[in-house]
Design brief:
Blueprint (H helix, E strand, L loop, with lengths): L5 H20 L27 H4 L34 E3 L21 E2 L1 E3 L15 E6 L18 E2 L5 E4 L2 E6 L4 E7 L3 E8 L2 E9 L11 E10 L2 E8 L6 E9 L5 E5 L21 E4 L3 E8 L3 E10 L3 H11 L5 H16 L2 E4 L2 H13 L5 E2 L6 E3 L5 E3 L6 E2 L1 E2 H4 L3 H8 L1 H17 L8 E3 L2 E2 L8 H10 L7 H12 L7 H7 L10 H22 L2 H11 L6 E2 L4 E2 L28 H4 L7 H7 L3 H13 L16 E2 L2 E2 L18 H14 L16 H11 L1 E2 L7 E4 L6 E5 L5 E7 L7 E7 L2 E2 L4 E3 H5 L2 E8 L20
Parallel strand pairs: 33-37
Antiparallel strand pairs: 1-3, 2-5, 4-10, 6-7, 7-8, 8-9, 9-17, 10-16, 11-12, 11-15, 12-13, 13-17, 14-16, 18-32, 19-22, 20-21, 23-24, 24-25, 26-27, 28-29, 30-31, 31-36, 32-33, 34-35, 34-37
């Protein structure tokens, strides 16, 4: 961010006159449809509805997407309007909370709430931490109120009651009736612009409130600076800099109204009026500006019954000129329905990459999951390719789309592997974005959990590394592999991060020197294995040997006397006392306990089986995990551990591969039982239908893979462990016109067991599927039945990859 953000406001003022005329006079100069961009971020026209087979059938796949799934319970999703991987996520806020209270409102919206605070333009999908919620707007009618009020007393502010009966959402669209002002709100979006349509009653006291104070993860002092300038009776520009989860995040915006406002006011938060204007609401006479930490504004209108007022809100990390350019490039006119239609068509094209047959409820869950996998990471650049980097300087991309919101501790497991199948070009661009992040980092390492030109250092591991290795080994080469490999090594060698210096010294992370040492040792060892795998692919033998050795460091924290992975002190002794059930943040494990984390050796499950005493003992331990009952007094469950079956916690990522491990021990039918149990008890098509944080698409990617019948237990192996398919037919529509179809004869809620498998009409007796078999196209054919086939894929040679096998 520039040292003086006022500079951008003044610069924007000089540019806005011509820009505003441009917006009014030059509609669709380049023929682009709103909301659609190429991989480089430039506009492109949408395909006609007739080009989509599912739309020719009379019902679009978007009709199976239910955006309210996950907005209740622990899902933390939002129901608002966005396009696939869109920079704008325009959605309602039902409440904002301070610090720890903000957990349940991480996406700004909870289905159980009864009031709406307003509609803002940036949101996380399914995270366990909150931030964003930028540029909040709210239509009101009657006496002006600039305070938000409370859920218990909405009449004390501009907040409004609402009912779910008057609310709807679909991909690219959200609508609700605000009961108190009797205003219908409709929202849609392009990549960088949110569009509002408000239908007012008759009134001489209609207002639109702009609140630059309110934020998700709200507290006094979060806003470091905000600025606002009224450029004309229809254009307002501004800026906001915040210190939240991201410690220094700036966002610029430009708002255009379809109708000139008759008056306005800006409140700075001070007792006196600011620069001579405040709550007067007088007719506009000039174009004033204001700056401060608590800016709010209002815009007054006379409205006839049923009159609509539309708004276009563009955002930018670069400057007001960038926001204005985004606005005029993506929505040059006032055709709300056309923008909504273009958003729907963009979703239809993406959803059509997977075509399934089956029961409607299961299709609702499946396509909503597919939808959720495309809500992060999201575009982070203006239409001209500029964006604000981690170094707070302005950069310009060269031939790719820059992305942000990298929740890598979650998404390396299944979301990015799903991208290698359905979104290989985007996955390559995401990796290029990570490499750019590394170049801009003073630490010269890849992102950990980053967004908004900031690194949060949240969670553990260096999990950009497996994302890069998995993509490279699967043939995605849109990035420089040698530069990427050097970046991977830098991240794995940054001694100041998370006990890495001690990890390299001791071969584990000592718990007396670093918290969560057991988890960190296990996750670093897996990341190191992916570096070794990529080193082999690049022919870098010495590096492969070094990181292959480090990949075996998981053995250093295995306690043979208890059979668990345990935290070890720097003197070589395990920490005492030890309770494998105890789970609490800041202890030996990260969002889990010893029961769960002892199974995190995805790259060497056979080695783990041997450590635990062989197949039978390993299988007993798996069963124990799923059946163990623990009293509430003993199990100190933290808020973010959910989706429990015994001590298996599907709501937390460290557990999500475990049900597939039965196949490594020669009992694939047990994997089939457990996967069916998880899918039918922990997923639903209701607002509470996601059993834990959606986590930027990871939970949904798990469901998609598992419903197809296979899952990437160990990204980097190029293998997917076979489970149990959900649909009688599922077809992946791949790049180059190829298709891969999964058929499941007789599949049902009772016929969950694999009886036999063929791949391209050839008998198949392996409990895993190779990536190349998917990408070259073909058919995987299951025959399902009500009883286990205890002979299929049980031989050691049929088991998936393990490092020590």
């Amino acid at each position: 961010m520039p040292k003086n953000p006022r500079f951008w406001i003044i610069s924007g003022a000089l540019l806005v006159g011509g820009a505003f005329l441009y917006v009014q006079l030059h509609a669709r100069k380049n023929g682009a449809a709103p909301g659609e961009t190429t991989a480089q971020g430039s506009p492109k026209a949408p395909a006609a509805p007739g080009e989509h087979p599912e739309m020719r059938e009379g019902r679009g796949l978007d009709s199976f997407v239910k955006p309210f799934i996950g907005t209740g319970g622990e899902g933390h999703t939002y129901p608002g309007a966005t396009v696939p991987f869109g920079m704008v996520q325009l959605s309602p806020e039902t409440d904002v909370r301070y610090f720890k209270e903000s957990f349940r409102w991480a996406a700004g919206y909870r289905y159980s709430d009864k009031t709406i605070l307003g509609f803002s333009h940036t949101h996380f999908s399914g995270t366990g931490h909150s931030d964003l919620g930028d540029v909040l707007l709210m239509p009101t009618v009657g006496p002006l109120q600039l305070e938000p009020g409370t859920p218990d007393d909405p009449d004390s502010g501009y907040r409004s009651r609402f009912s779910h009966e008057d609310e709807s959402a679909s991909p690219g669209y959200y609508a609700v009736l605000l009961k108190d002002p009797q205003v219908k709100v409709e929202l849609t979006a392009t990549n960088r612009v949110g569009m509002h349509r408000y239908t007012f009653p008759q009134s001489e006291q209609s207002h639109i409130v702009l609140d630059l104070v309110s934020s998700i993860y709200n507290y006094d002092g979060k806003v470091l600076l905000s600025q606002l300038r009224v450029e004309s009776p229809t254009v307002v520009t501004g800026f906001r800099q915040t210190r939240g989860w991201a410690k220094n995040r700036g966002l610029y915006f430009a708002i255009e109204f379809s109708k000139p406002f008759k008056g306005y006011g800006i409140e700075s938060g001070a007792d006196e009026e600011y620069k001579g204007f405040g709550k007067s609401g007088k007719l506009l006479q000039n174009y004033p500006e204001a700056s401060g930490k608590k800016l709010k504004a209002y815009f007054d209108f006379d409205t006839a019954a049923g009159e609509t007022i539309q708004l276009k809100v563009a955002i930018s990390s670069v400057g007001i000129d960038g926001a204005l350019a985004n606005l005029r490039a993506e929505i040059p006119d006032w055709n709300f329905d056309a923008v909504r239609r273009a958003a729907r068509e963009s979703w239809s094209r993406e959803l059509a990459k997977v075509d399934v047959d089956g029961e409607e409820k299961k299709k609702n869950i499946f396509y909503t999951s597919l939808y959720h996998t495309m809500l992060a990471p999201v575009t982070y650049m203006d239409v001209d390719g500029r964006y604000r980097g981690l170094d707070q300087s302005i950069h310009k991309v060269d031939g790719f789309t820059n992305y942000h919101i990298f929740s890598l501790w979650d998404t390396f497991r299944a979301l990015h592997p799903l991208f290698t199948i359905l979104q290989p070009e985007r996955d390559g661009d995401m990796i290029r974005s990570m490499l750019a992040h590394r170049e801009q980092s003073v630490h010269h390492i890849l992102p950990i959990w980053s967004f908004g030109s900031n690194e949060t250092w949240c969670m553990i591991g260096y999990h950009a590394v497996p994302v890069i290795a998995d993509a490279y080994l699967k043939g995605i080469r849109s990035f420089d592999p040698q530069a990427a490999f050097e970046a991977m090594k830098s991240s794995a060698s940054y001694a100041a991060y998370g006990g890495l210096g001690d990890y390299m010294k001791y071969g584990y992370v000592p718990i007396d020197r670093e918290k969560e040492g057991a988890s960190k040792t296990l996750e670093y060892a897996y990341d190191d294995w992916t570096i070794a795998a990529m080193a082999k692919g690049l022919g870098r033998t010495e590096d492969g040997q070094e990181f292959g050795k480090r990949a075996a460091y998981f053995r250093h924290v295995f306690d043979t006397s208890t059979g668990f992975m345990r935290a070890k002190k720097s003197d070589g002794r395990f920490r005492e006392p030890f309770d494998p059930v105890y789970a609490q943040y800041g202890s030996d494990y990260t969002e889990g306990n010893a029961l769960q984390y002892s199974f995190f050796v995805p790259h060497d499950v056979q080695g783990l089986i041997e450590l635990m005493g062989g197949r039978e003992r390993f299988l007993e331990r798996l069963d124990q995990l799923f059946t163990m009952k623990v009293s509430d007094e003993k199990f100190k469950q933290v808020e973010d551990i959910s989706g429990l079956i015994g001590q298996y916690a599907h709501g937390n990522e460290p557990s999500q591969h475990i049900a597939y491990l039965y196949s490594y021990a020669g009992q694939p039918w047990r994997t089939q039982e457990r996967i069916h149990q998880i899918m039918t008890t922990l997923f639903d098509d209701t607002p509470e239908g996601i059993s834990g944080n959606e986590d930027c698409g990871q939970m949904s990617a798990w469901y998609i893979f598992s419903a197809l019948g296979f899952y990437p237990v160990c990204p980097g192996t190029l293998e997917y462990v076979i489970g149990t398919p959900t649909f009688p037919r599922a077809t992946l529509n791949l790049a180059g016109g190829k298709t891969f179809t999964v058929l499941a004869d007789n599949v049902s809620d009772t016929n969950i067991y694999v009886q036999s498998v063929t791949l391209n009409d050839q008998k198949y007796d392996k409990s895993y599927l190779r990536h190349e078999d998917i990408m070259k196209g073909g058919t995987l054919h299951f025959v399902m039945g009500p009883h286990p086939n205890r002979e299929w894929a049980i031989a050691p040679a049929s088991a998936p990859y393990s490092m020590s096998r």
